[in-house]
């Protein structure tokens, strides 16, 4: 399976990771990853729609603007805490 990593690292992005988006002070959460089909059960019905509409990207839930689709280069997100040990 294709893996997407945080910039400059070998740390894979995973659903549930806590990240900072741009200059937010409050963490955002990775909701799903379109290109790798990593969707939580409650979002599984949306997989085909998101793949058709966007093809790729990482959906994060931000405290400032709600859900945001970030590009896979992850230029605007920084890992705070990984969902997996």
Please provide a written account of the structure.
With 85 residues, this protein is mostly beta strands. The chain contains one helix and five strands. It has one helix at residues 47-53, and strands at residues 18-21, 28-33, 58-62, 66-70, 77-81. It has a five-stranded antiparallel sheet with strand order 4-3-2-1-5, with no helix packed on it. Strand 3 (58-62) and strand 4 form a beta hairpin. 19% of the residues are buried. The model has no long low-confidence stretch (mean pLDDT 91).
| Main sheet strand line-up | 4-3-2-1-5
Tally the helices: what do you get? 1
Shape: globular
Number of strands: 5
- DSSP helix fraction: under 10%
Could you give a short account of the major beta sheet?
5 strands, antiparallel
Task: Report the end-to-end length measured between terminal Cα atoms.
Answer: 20 Å
Strand content: 25-35%
What is the CA-atom radius of gyration, in angstroms?
Answer: 12 Å
- SSE order in H/E notation? EEHEEE
Which class of secondary structure composition applies to the elements? mainly beta
- Could you name the ranges where pLDDT drops below 50 across 5 or more consecutive residues? none
Mean pLDDT over the full residue set:
91
Brief sketch in words of this structure:
The protein has 85 residues and is mainly beta.
Task: Please supply descriptive tags for the structure shown above.
85 residues, mainly beta, five-stranded antiparallel beta sheet, 1 helix, 29% strand
SSE topology sketch:
Layout: E1 18-21, E2 28-33, H1 47-53, E3 58-62, E4 66-70, E5 77-81
Antiparallel strand pairs: 1-2, 1-5, 2-3, 3-4
């Amino acid at each position: 399976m294709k893996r997407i990593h945080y910039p400059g690292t070998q740390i894979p992005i995973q659903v549930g990771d806590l990240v900072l988006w741009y200059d937010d002070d409050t963490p955002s959460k990775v909701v799903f990853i379109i290109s790798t089909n990593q969707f939580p059960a409650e979002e599984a019905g949306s997989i085909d729609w998101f793949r058709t509409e966007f093809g790729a990207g990482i959906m994060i839930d931000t405290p400032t603007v709600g859900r945001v689709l970030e590009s896979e280069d992850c230029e605007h997100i920084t890992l705070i805490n990984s969902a997996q040990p």
